[in-house]
Each structure stands twice: as structure tokens, then as C-alpha cells.
Amino acid sequence: MARLRVGVLISGRGSNLQALIKACGDPAYPAEIALVISNRPAAPGLRLADTAEIRAAVVPHFDRDAFAAEADKLLHEQGIELVCLAGFMRLLAPSFVEAWRDRMVNIHPSLLPAFRGLHAQRQALAAGVRFSGCTVHFVRPELDCGPIIAQAVVPVHPGDDEERLAARILVVEHRLYPLALRLIAEGRVRVIANQVEIDGWQAPEIAVLSPQDTSARPFALPSA
Ligand code: GRF
User: 63: exposed, middle or buried (C-beta count within 10 Å: 0-12, 13-18, 19+)?
Assistant: First the structure.
């Protein structure tokens, strides 16, 4: 079966790009990265693309509309079917977002709709939440909005700082993004009335308390 042709937009480090590259390295994985676009020439993620022998381009983002036109042209030239934002740090032109509606996804380091925008981990710590995590969602013109495909949860530990929490979330980002991409590439993900339906979807059977209830025995949730 043909693999889904994916374009990845980055601005920096590219650790999520690397996680996707690794997943696509399995011949049984249903997607391949055919193009990487960075708005910054110095983005370390470009080197990761280079090492993996993936076509890469730098498209500056001084002007939103000029970026949209050039990126759209490159994506079409490469026959890209799905765009993954992976640490792409600029707001995209609404026309670009609409053109790729339900064909563009993003990963954000919080449990959306909480803590949209920059410094999501700092926002989570300031709010005193006991859990945070990450979200893969379809992109809409408003920042960090759009139908939720998948989420992963991590605990906030006492004494966490932004860096420690970000590192803990990043570990699950690198598992969640390849999972979400696989589900999309398998054709199992549909947007219906602004919510995502996934064929054969299963939620975990466990609940987690924080603080832990050390006085109680482990419990199972009643099955549906
Ligand atoms: C990640 O935390 C991602 O959730 C956010 O930006 C960061 C990008 O990291 N959108 P990297 O470039 O993938 O390492």
C-alpha cells in the first residue's frame, strides 16, 4: 500500500521530527516524510532531515502570506498529503490553514484546551495542576485550537521546574506524535462536527490519582 506523504514544518530543535523520522524508518509504518520546511536556516532540525536524506527547504517567514504561498507550492510539488507542525513557531496565514483543513496537524505540550500558546509548561506550573501532557490536534486558524486526535498525560512532580516538566512531556510527545500519524495514515481518523472519530479506538482502562492514595489498594474502573 502507498504510504501517506507527509511534510513537516519546523522552526528549531526537531526532536519531534526525529521521532517521526524514526517511526517512518519502519517499512511497515504507513507514512513517509517527503519534505521538511523550516522558517529558520539555523534550525538544528534541518540537520536531522539531512542525515535522514529527506528533502528540506528553508522558507523565511518575514511575511505570512509570502511564506504560505512558497510553502504551499513546495508541498504540492512533493505531492504532500498531510502537514505535521513540529515546533513550528509562527502563526500561519488563515488562507494556508483553510487550504490544509483537516490535512494539517500540530503537537502542543499541554492537555488542550488548557494552556494554549507559548510557555505551556510554565502556565501549567503556575496553575498548580497535578497532571499535564501533550495533544495532537488538527489545526484551525486560532492558535492551538482544533479537533483533538490524541493526548498523553504525565504527572507534575513536587518541585518541578519548567525544564523538568518540559522534558517529561517531551518523552510522551515522541510516542504520541508517531501514534497519531499512524492512525491518520491508516485512514482511521475522521473529523465530524469538530470532533475526531477514530475507527477501532480504545481508551486505557486505568485511572491515576495525584497525590497517590497510598492508603487504598489499587482499583480498577468498572467496565462499560
Ligand atoms: C515541542 O514541545 C512541541 O510540543 C512544541 O514545540 C516543541 C518542539 O520541540 N510545539 P522539537 O523542535 O520537536 O524538539
Answer: exposed
Length of the chain equals 224
How many angstroms separate the alpha carbon of residue 223 from the centre of ligand 1? 36
Domain boundaries 1-100, CATH class: alpha beta
Instruction: With 0.90 as the threshold, say if the pTM is over it.
Output: yes
Q: Is 137 a catalytic residue?
A: no
* pLDDT single digits (tens) 33-62: 999 999 999 999 999 999 999 999 999 999
pLDDT tens digits along 176-195: 999 999 999 999 999 999 99
Q: Is the CB of 16 under 6 A from ligand 1?
A: yes
CATH of 106-224, one of 3.40.50.2300, 3.40.50.10240, 3.40.50.170, 3.30.750.24: 3.40.50.170
Instruction: Tell me the CA end-to-end span of the chain in Å, nearest whole number.
Output: 36
| Ligand 1 centre distance from Cα of residue 16 (Å) | 6
